[in-house]
């Protein structure tokens, strides 16, 4: 079944100039880009987007990082794209990420880890609508 997932190319990756490299991984894996925009989240927007993590010890530093510069929000479409994108991203901490994953290749540490990806159909729906309205998504 075709699904949609939200990816964010995080501020560390945009600052390092590897946006294109990351997008290339998506396309080489057959994920279809159906929406894309550059965004600079405010601290409050980052806190709202990541509200499930409120109260965790990394929350303050992480949301400061996510609002530290522009990032790129992307909607990907494909069969089982939620799971397949998580696989392609690799584990949260690049030290634990498998060879060939985006985070293993490009991440600096467990916070500055290059990409976000939705983890379920429910979070994907919420996360896509956080950045895009229906007229900005060009799926099937
Ligand atoms: P994932 O992005 O792999 O789904 P989580 O949803 O658990 O990981 O966490 C969201 C983001 O918060 C991570 O991608 C990472 O940037 C940051 N983060 C998570 N755990 C830590 C940690 N222990 N220290 C610093 N940052 C963290
Ligand atoms: Mg997560």
Topology record:
Blueprint: E1 2-9, H1 11-16, H2 19-28, E2 32-39, H3 43-49, H4 59-66, E3 71-79, H5 81-89, H6 102-106, E4 115-117, H7 121-131
Antiparallel strand pairs: 1-3, 1-4, 2-3
Adenosine-5'-diphosphate binds at residues 53, 58, 62, 92, 110-111, 113, 116, 119.
Give an overview of the whole structure.
It is a single chain. The protein is α+β, with helices and mostly antiparallel strands. It has a single domain (2-132), classed as Nucleoside diphosphate kinase-like domain (Alpha-Beta Plaits, 2-Layer Sandwich). It has 7 helices and 4 strands, in the order βααβααβααβα. The chain has helices spanning 11-16, 19-28, 43-49, 59-66, 81-89, 102-106, 121-131, and strands at residues 2-9, 32-39, 71-79, 115-117. A 4-stranded antiparallel sheet has the order 2-3-1-4, with helices on both faces. Helix 3 crosses helix 4. The chain is globular and about 40 Å long. The model has no long low-confidence stretch (mean pLDDT 98).
């Amino acid at each position: 079944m075709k699904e949609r997932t939200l990816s964010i190319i995080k501020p560390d990756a945009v600052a390092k100039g590897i946006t294109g490299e990351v997008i290339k991984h998506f396309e080489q894996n057959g994920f279809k880009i159906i929406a894309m925009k550059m965004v600079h989240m405010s601290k409050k927007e980052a806190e709202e987007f990541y509200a499930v993590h409120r109260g965790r010890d990394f929350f303050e530093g992480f949301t400061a990082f996510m609002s530290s510069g522009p990032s790129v929000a992307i909607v990907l479409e494909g069969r089982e794209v939620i799971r397949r994108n998580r696989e392609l991203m690799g584990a949260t901490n690049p030290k634990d990420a498998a060879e060939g994953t985006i985070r293993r290749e490009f991440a600096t540490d467990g916070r500055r880890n290059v990409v976000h990806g939705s983890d379920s159909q429910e979070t994907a729906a919420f996360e896509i609508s956080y950045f895009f309205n229906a007229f900005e998504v060009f799926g099937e």
